[in-house]
Structures are given as structure tokens and as C-alpha cells.
Write a structure and sequence with these properties.
It is built from 23 helices and 16 strands. 49% of the residues lie in helices and 12% in strands. A 5-stranded antiparallel sheet has the order 1-2-3-4-5. The protein has a 5-stranded mixed sheet with strand order 13-12-14-15-16, with helices on both faces. The chain has 590 residues and is of the alpha+beta class.
Length: 590
Amino acid sequence: MIPDDFKQQLLNRVDIVDVIEHHVQLRKAGQNYVARCPFHNEKTPSFSVSPSKQFYHCFGCGAHGNAIGFVMEHAGLGYVEAVTELAAMVGMTLPEQRATDVVTRTQQGPDLAECLLRAARFYKEQLKRSERAIAYLKQRGLNGEIAARFGLGYAPGGWQSLAEPFSDYKTSTALKDAGLVIDAEGGRRYDRFRDRIVFPIVNARGAIIGFGGRIIDAGEPKYLNSPETPLFEKGRELYGLFQSRQGLRESGRAVVVEGYMDVVALAQYGVPGVVATLGTATTPMHLEKLLRLTDQVIFCFDGDEAGRRAAWRAVETSLGKLVDGKGVGFLFLPDGDDPDSYVRRDGREAFELLLREAVPLSEMIMRELSERADLATPEGRARLLHLAKPLLAQVNAPALALLLRRRLAAATQVEVADIERLFGLRRAPQAAPHTAAAPPPRRAAPTLMRWLLQAILTAPHLAARLARSALDPSDRYTPALAAVLDLVAARPDINPRQVVPWAMERIQDGAVALVLREVQCDLLSAPQVDIEAEFAEALAKAQQQTLRRRLTALRAAEHRSPEEQAELECLLRGLSQAAKEPAVRLESSV
């Protein structure tokens, strides 16, 4: 965990405009900066960055957040990695968490990274010297440009070839910890990678964290990976992700294959957004990383039984991670083919056609389960329901959950409500009936509570002047306003430019977060006003509304106590006096 105060210090020190300009060309537009959104394809700029509020928002795809969120989404980094990268930009050092983390970060990390980088340079130089290795790559259809893009190298066949670049080969603990050498019995040490094409594995920042090796001639294992190290965790990393980030965004999809050569060959033929797992099944962390960068993930497997089993594991992994608007598909290649051989024989267009015909996740589930049950009999349909129950329970995307239930209901000849009752599932949201003549939804007119919410998000010190009794319980913006008042009361010293992203991170109520996001978007285009004067007038108006609500309640009471009668008369006198004074003016926006 990263302490909250450190994160706030970091956000106070970084400028979101500087962070985003490292990746996106921004143009000044009034108080804000605009650009074409880096998270979806568009022709006109809808991506807005507010230097005063320190957040970004895309009016096209809805992407929004602070500087940490942008680095996570754009680079596909985890939270800790994004904080680490931003801290390095402004010269801040992460606080030490645990003794083991400190050792890894301050001692092992730099040593291992240097070892891996030096080894990569050695392997790359050896590739230039090996006619046999070069001939093999040419025979696989790869050219020098693609080899350079992925940093390919060659590990010579000798048992201790790395002794050439490492003078401390026999004694270095970093070489072993980096997975470059193996210590055998009797104190003998030898290279892990020998007589193999070497594929450097890099993290999201482009730093080498491990290697994969492909045998040139016949032999086992065909592929060999670095072991897990303090820098390399197979369940978190994807081969080719760093090189494919631009292609992921431009194509709107990621293609997940099983081998290094598949990634490189597809890139050679111009297929964008291709990555590979590193000798493991796809993990939830893999999927989270990809879905932060793109909207669709297509898993590409061999059409044999092993490929089918791997596809089903990917189905089970995907169910809990999908959100509405994101998709997962499955492509099964003809028997005897892998992506490398298929694209070299039939070309890019043929492979792209296969991708367009990928089986959607929902169809994949129904096909697989239907093969395990006889739908012609009640017993078979009951078995289908039994098999589907644990899968439906994992789906968190509301629209997808509803559509899957409808497909299952149709296949088993029951009602959706029966499935929900039988499985103990929460009722799926039902879409409202659509009529062609129905007018588009209209946005609610600004209210006083909404204005006060905008004002406090802009100038949080004003919160101390707003009494809770002045909040209108019937206004849809009041719960969000009350939540922000609570947050600001807990952090009265918060930097005004951080209050919006800080509040967005802490508010968990879905309805409140939706309202807050709506107001957050409006702040990007809100004109500058004299906030102190406007807020004073708004408070006066809120107080008048509070008195009127109380007056209405007292008038409606059938039996009033003497105290309540006196209060009623006092209110009537006060409102009568206020009516003789100039009306309170209030601008509609901050």
C-alpha cells in the first residue's frame, strides 16, 4: 500500500498537463487544453485537460481521471507502477513499505536490470555474428527491421558464453537471481539459454525484465523462459505489449497468441496489437492490463483439444473482469496451423478475416455448454442450467449478464425470472421499451444544490460556510454535495486543484459517483466568476429555501404546539420583510 499522504503530495507536485503532454499533443483552448483522445479513435478533439482542476475527461468515450489514472490507462501500468513512474518524474522517493520490498527495490532491482541489459546487448551482437541464426530468422520470414524492433538476439551454444560479457561470471549472485545462469551440483555453473533465438521480455516502460528462447533445430523444450525473479512475474507480463501499445489503440483490439514467434511474425505482416502469454494461461491481471488499453481482446488458439481447453480457461478468467462496452472473442485456427504459419502462408488479409469472425464470449459459452448437455430432454436442459450457474454468478457486467440469462432461458425453455430465482441471482436490469417517437433524454436544469456542489469542488474552503440544514433533501445533487462536504471536512487543508480527483476516488456510492462525474465534466467548460460573491448570494438563497420548506411543513401540520405557532409567525414576518428587499441573483454556473 502507498500511504495516502504520499499520493496527495505526489499529485500536488506533478502537473497533469506536463504528464499528458509526454504522450499526447495538447492544444490550448480557453482555460483548458484539448486533444484527440488517446483512448479511442476520433477525428475531432473531445479530450479535455483542466490544469486548474488537475483532471482529464473525454466527452467521446468517457475516459477520465487524474495524473495517476492517465499513466495507468495509457501505459497499461498497475497502480504502484504508475505512482512509481510519476514519483521518478518529480524526484520523489516512495516510502519504504516492507523490509523485503526495500531490499528488492534498492539492492536487487538495479543489479538485475543491469545484468539483463548487458546480456541483451551480448545476445544481440551474437546474432549479427551467427550466419546460422540469421538464416533461421530469414527462413521464418523475418527481416532485420522487425528483429531490431523486438531486440532479438542469439545465445551461442557454449555452456558458459556469458563469461565473455561478465568477468564475475563464476561468482555473481545477480546472474543467478536474474535467471541467466543455473548452478549445478559441485559448484558448476552454466548458461540457461544456449543455441537459441533470444526474445527479450520488456515491461510497460520498455525495461528488460527477462528472456524467452526458441530452439533453432529439433530439441526440447522448444521454448524456454526466464524463471520468475524480483523483476519478472509471468502472471503479470505479456510479451510484445510494449511494442504493440500504439497498435492496440489504433485497432481497438488485442490479439492474444501463445508464442513469441507468433507475435513477431504477425507484427512482420502488419497485424497490430498482438501479444503473448509467457508460458502460462491468461490471468486476471493479463486481462485487466489489456482492457485498460483497448476495448476487445481476441484469444487465438489452435483448433485441437489442448486449444479448446485453453480457450475455456480464458472464458472463466474473462467473466469476472468484463464490463459492458468491452468484449472478448475466440479464434480457432485450422488443424496444424499456428498464427506464424498461417500468416506466412495466407497473408495478413486472410488472418484479419479470421479475426473478424472470432466467436464472441457469449456464443463460446453456449456452444461449449450445449455440447455437454442434451437439450432435447428436460434432464439435459437441467444439466445445462447446472453447468451455467457458476459462470453466470461471476458476470459483473449488467448488460452482458442480462443477455446471457436470456440466451440460457431460450435454450432451456424457461423464463429469465425462473433462472434468477433458481440460481439465487440478483434481478438483472431490464431495458426500457423503445419507441421510435420517444424524445431523447434531456438534461435536468441546473439547481441551487448543483451550483453549490460545483462551487465547493472549485473552492473547497467555502464548505465551512455551508450549514447542513441548508441542503435540500429533495434535490438529486444533495447526496453528492453532502459526501463532498464530509470529505472536505476531513481534509480542510486539501489543495483546491486536487479536490475533484480526490473525491472521485473516495466516493463509493454508484449514484453519487455518477452525479459527481456529471458535475466534473461541466467544470471543464464553466466560465470564471467572482466565486466569493456568488457563493454568498447562493447561501442567502439556500437559507430562504430552507425557511420556505419549514414554513410549508408548519402550515401542513394539523396540530401545532405553541412553540411551533410562534415559529410559524416568525417565519411569515421574516419572509414578508425579505420580499421587500432586492431579489437575490445567482449565476447558473461557476
